[in-house]
Amino acid sequence: MDIAASLSAELVAVLKDDWVLYVEARETDALKAEIGPASGSSSINDSTEKKEGSGPNGTNANAHGSGEDKRTDAINQGLRDRLRPLLLNLVRTKGLKEGMLSWREVIQGELKALVSKKLPGLEAESEGSNGNDEVRAGLANHLRNLSQADFMALMKGIYRTLMNGIERLKSQGDILSEMLEALKPELPNRRAPRSATTVARTSSTSNSQSTALSSSTPSLPLIPPIEEDLNDFLSSSCELANTTVAKVVAFRSEKHAKLELPEFMDFFNTSWAFVVRCEVISKRMIIGLRGTVVSQAKLWLQTFHQARISQSAKLVEDEVWNPSPVTREVQRMTDIIVDSAVKDSPELFIDPTKKTPEQSPGEASKEVNGTSSQGDELANPPSTAKTPATPSKPSATTPLRIEDRTYFAVKATLDVLGLLLDYLKIVVNMSMLTTDTMSRVIEFLKAFNSRTCQVVLGAGAMRSAGLKNITAKHLALASQSLSVVFELIPYLKRDYQEHQNEIHAKLVAIMGDRLKAHVKTLHAIDWNANSPEGGVNTYMVALVKETVQLHKILSRYLTLPVVEFVMSQVLAAINHGLSEEYGKIELRDQHGKNR
C-alpha cells in the first residue's frame, strides 16, 4: 500500500506540474498578444482562436498556430514519457483509482486558485464563515466599483485562464486513456474463474478438447475502467469553474442592469461563449453561470424596456402635433425596420469592441440602459431618443415612406422609430433574448398607442403640451402616427411568426409520430380474416381519439383560424399517410376489401 500511495502522489505531481506549466505558458502567450502591435480585444479563448488560425493577422496567425501545435505536441509527448512507467506500476499495484481520486481533489483547488489569484477575497466567499464577512464585503465593493471596461478585462482574463485549464484537463484525460489502452499488451492477464460445471466438463473430455477450452477462456485485464471516471472528473471541473465565476458575476447584477446595449452585449456574449464551450467539452448542460447570465440578461432587458416606455411616454406628452420633416436618417431607419421582415440589415449589427463617443454628464444622466453606439452612423444608426429628428434641409411636408405608401408624421412618432430600432438590435445581436424582446416590442407599441389616445382623444395634450384645443389637424396627425406604427407591425412579426410556425409544425409532427405508431398495428391485422360485422379496428379508434383530444386542447387555447389551420394540416397528413399504408396491403378476396 505504501508503494501504491507513493506512486499515486508521484502521478498527481506529474499531472499538476504539466497542468500548471501549460496554463502559465498559454497565459504568457495571451498577455504578449494583448500588448503586441496588432492586439485587439481579447476573447475568452484567445489561445484557441490562434490555434485555429483565426487571429487578426491572417497568415501570421496561421503560422503562429502551426508553431503552437508543434509546441503542444512536444509537451504531450513529454507527458507521455513521464506517465508511462507510473501508469504501468500503478496498474500492477492496483493504485490507479486512488491516484485519479487524489488528482481530482488537487485540481479542484487549482481551478479555484486561478480565480482567487485575481480576486483574493473570493476564497472567503467560498468558505462562507462569519469571520470573513469583511473580506466578502470588500470583494463585493471592489467588483461593484470597477468600471465596465475594467471588469470585462478582468473577466476575459479569468475566462481565458479557466478555459486553458479545462482544455488541458481534457487533453490529459485523452492521453491517460490512450496510454492505458496501449499498455494492455504489456500487462499480465488473469483468467476468469471457471464454474464447477465447466471444470467437470473439462475433466471428462479428451486432452485436446481440454486444451482448446482452456485457451478460449476469456481473460480479464488488470487495468480498471477509468473512462467514466475521467468524464465525470472533467464535468465536475467545468461545473466548478462555472460556479466560481457565477459568484463573481453575481456581484455586478445591479450594474449590469443599467449598461448600454454594446456594453451588455459584450458581457453577455463573452460569458455565454464560455458557458457553451464548457458544455461542449463536458458534453453536459452546466447550470451555474448559465443561470446567472440569463437572469441578468432578463433584468437588463426589463430595465432597457422600462426606460424606453418612459421615453416614449415623454415624447408623446410633449408633442405639439405638427408635421415633422423626415430626414434621410429617419427614412433609413424606417427602411431598416421594413427590411427586418426578410433580413437583418448590416446597420443593426453592433461591434461591442468599438468605443462609444464621449457623452457630456447631462447626456449620460438623461439615459439609463441606452444604446449609445452611434460612433459610426452607417454601422449603428443613432437612436432618435437622444438625437432629435429635426433635419437640416427637408420641408415639413416631406412624408415618411413605407414601401409604396406615404405618411405625415409628428416628431414623437419619428423618435419612437429610433427607440423601436434599439429593440431590433437586441434581436439581431443577442438571439437568446429574441422571444422576450419581441414580447416587449408589443408592449412598447401598445403603450405608445395608449398614450397617444390619452393626449389626443382625451385632450391630455392641452395640459402636457400646452395646446389651446384639439383640432382636426391634430386628430389627423395622430391617426397618421398610429397608421405608421400599424403599418410597421407586420414587418416586426418575422421572428414571432417563424417561431409560431415551428410550433404549429411540431403539432403536426406529433400526430405524424402517433400515426406511425398506429401503422404498426394496422399492418399486424389479418385483413382477410373474419371480423365482427361493423367492428372498428383498434388502431382507428385510438387515432380518432387522439385527434379529437388534440382538437380540444387547441380549441381551448388558440383562436379559431389557428385551430382550423393546424387541424387541416394534421388531417391532411393523416389522410395522406393512411392512403399510402392502405396501398401496401394485399387483399386476396372481396371480404378483405369490404373491411
UniProtKB/TrEMBL annotation:
<dbReference type="Pfam" id="PF07928">
    <property type="entry name" value="Vps54"/>
</dbReference>
<keyword id="KW-0333">Golgi apparatus</keyword>
<comment type="similarity">
    <text>Belongs to the VPS54 family.</text>
</comment>
<feature type="compositionally biased region" description="Low complexity">
    <location>
        <begin position="194"/>
        <end position="220"/>
    </location>
</feature>
<dbReference type="GO" id="GO:0006896">
    <property type="term" value="P:Golgi to vacuole transport"/>
</dbReference>
<dbReference type="GO" id="GO:0019905">
    <property type="term" value="F:syntaxin binding"/>
</dbReference>
<feature type="domain" description="Vacuolar protein sorting-associated protein 54 C-terminal">
    <location>
        <begin position="405"/>
        <end position="493"/>
    </location>
</feature>
<feature type="region of interest" description="Disordered">
    <location>
        <begin position="348"/>
        <end position="398"/>
    </location>
</feature>
<dbReference type="InterPro" id="IPR012501">
    <property type="entry name" value="Vps54_C"/>
</dbReference>
<dbReference type="GO" id="GO:0000938">
    <property type="term" value="C:GARP complex"/>
</dbReference>
<feature type="region of interest" description="Disordered">
    <location>
        <begin position="186"/>
        <end position="220"/>
    </location>
</feature>
<keyword id="KW-0813">Transport</keyword>
<feature type="region of interest" description="Disordered">
    <location>
        <begin position="34"/>
        <end position="72"/>
    </location>
</feature>
<protein>
    <recommendedName>
        <fullName>Vacuolar protein sorting-associated protein 54 C-terminal domain-containing protein</fullName>
    </recommendedName>
</protein>
<feature type="compositionally biased region" description="Low complexity">
    <location>
        <begin position="381"/>
        <end position="398"/>
    </location>
</feature>
<dbReference type="GO" id="GO:0042147">
    <property type="term" value="P:retrograde transport, endosome to Golgi"/>
</dbReference>
<dbReference type="GO" id="GO:0005829">
    <property type="term" value="C:cytosol"/>
</dbReference>
<keyword id="KW-0653">Protein transport</keyword>
<keyword id="KW-0175">Coiled coil</keyword>
<dbReference type="InterPro" id="IPR039745">
    <property type="entry name" value="Vps54"/>
</dbReference>
<feature type="compositionally biased region" description="Basic and acidic residues">
    <location>
        <begin position="348"/>
        <end position="357"/>
    </location>
</feature>
<dbReference type="GO" id="GO:0015031">
    <property type="term" value="P:protein transport"/>
</dbReference>
